Amino acid sequence: MLRFGQHLIKPSVVFLKTELSFALVNRKPVVPGHVLVCPLRPVERFRDLCPEEVADLFRTAQRVGNVVEKHFCGTSLTISIQDGPEAGQTVKHVHVHVLPRRAGDFSRNDDVYEELQQHDKEDSSDKWRTEEEMAAEAAILKKYFQEN
Q1: Rounded CA gap, 146 and 148, in Å?
Q2: Catalytic, out of 34, 93, 95, 97
Q3: Cut 0.85: pTM above it
């Protein structure tokens, strides 16, 4: 299992692992295909990453973005880091939100940031996806990264 802040992440929800990073599906996506890319080393703030981790994190976010934009029929991407509690970070582990976007997915385009700020703060877990739903999505995304 991998650690994501205070959470232990099952391998079934991880669809890509590199030397220094991993990508996982989101239990409460803001839009279909909203995924997370994290450094393997659990550090709380972006400033705490070493240069090699920053490079790998963003190379991985770029690769993942290309895949989720294509797979979820997006036309653009929102890539975001909430770095610290005042920025909306709720999990104390650096992570990059990668969201495939398309025209009209929000009535006001910048509403995506408000939604990111609120999406995981509701106490009710009834809107969270099941482990089975998350594993199924991860299995599909994993196929894009398998070398032939």
Answers
A1: 6
A2: 95
A3: yes
